[in-house]
Amino acid sequence: MPRPRYRSRSLRRVQKKMPGGKTKQVYVKKKPGLHKCAECGAELKGIPRLSATKAKNIAKTKKRPERLYGGFLCAGCARQKLKQEARLSKD
Ligand SMILES: [Zn+2]
Fold first, then answer.
1. Which of helix, strand or coil describes residue 80?
2. Which residue range is the domain that position 8 belongs to?
């Protein structure tokens, strides 16, 4: 029977090969969920699935696309939004 803290399903079980050749079950933290577009709910590309502690150690430019609404809207929704803004500002 695993230790009480490993009985929870909040940790993922992975079969890992050890240096001696035997496989052993190890407990790994689950990845956080996918980032979604605020407009249509589609999966956002170019955003790594990192925990907060790992995300703070990488550059901001590697955490989201470097464009307007990058990391907030998907490419299609961002394009539409920018078009709308341009049309509104003309009047
Ligand atoms: Zn979208």
1. helix
2. 1-30
